Amino acid sequence: MQLVVGRVGRAHGIKGEVTVEVRTDEPELRLGPGAVLATEPAQAGPLRIETGRVHSGRLLLRFEGVRDRTGAEALRNVLLIAEVDPEELPEDPEEFYDHQLMDLDVVLADGTEVGRITEISHLPSQDLFIVERPDGSEVMIPFVAEIVTEIDLEEQRAVIDPPPGLIDDRAEIASSRDTDPDTDRDTGPAADAAGEVLGEDGAAGKDGG
């Protein structure tokens, strides 16, 4: 399975380094020196990571064969794609890859049907489940421990304990979303321009607060 693990940003300096928007919770594994990544668009790759370092909170990578700022700028906005075993699980048992969460049934503790997860949106503050209700509308469920009390992959369901107003008539309906794709990670959203062919390696996890 191909998963989007990053997106190339601006060139950094004059020696071929680029900033990278990380879209994986395991950058040491996916974006370490020696890793070979496919790309979208495909003609930009494959790219082998030569060096990596963190500078001012940003990941900087240099790819083999990219030696100057011009070459680095040519890679801007390229998606970096890793080949991942679909059976592989994140190391943290409280985290899940997006493709594991897609299409899970969302239910209340008493079994009442809420809907089905159709998308996971990764925001700076928290992850959100985009849940399609039986009537076709959509509701956003924060993926936090206080609300999502259980993820049961064997039963293919997510159990939630929503606060008043989250999923009733006053719930915020996302029938027309205009989220900037540059800020959404995806595997389900399947990566900005990557389309439905690609998933995303964002490991969604419960935020305990």
Q: Which tags fit this structure?
A:
209 residues, mainly beta, six-stranded antiparallel β-barrel, 3 helices
Provide a descriptive summary of the structure in words:
There is one protein chain. It is elongated, with a radius of gyration of 18 Å. The two termini are 32 Å apart. A six-stranded antiparallel β-barrel has the order 1-2-5-4-3-6. It contains three helices and 15 strands. It has 209 residues and is mostly beta strands. Strand 12 (148-152) and strand 13 form a beta hairpin. The model is unreliable at 170-200 (pLDDT under 50).
SSE diagram, text form:
Blueprint: E1 2-12, E2 17-22, H1 27-30, E3 36-40, E4 47-55, E5 58-63, H2 69-73, E6 79-83, E7 95-97, H3 98-101, E8 105-108, E9 113-122, E10 127-132, E11 138-142, E12 148-152, E13 157-160, E14 199-200, E15 203-205
Parallel strand pairs: 1-14, 8-13
Antiparallel strand pairs: 1-2, 1-6, 2-5, 3-4, 3-6, 4-5, 7-15, 8-9, 9-10, 10-11, 12-13
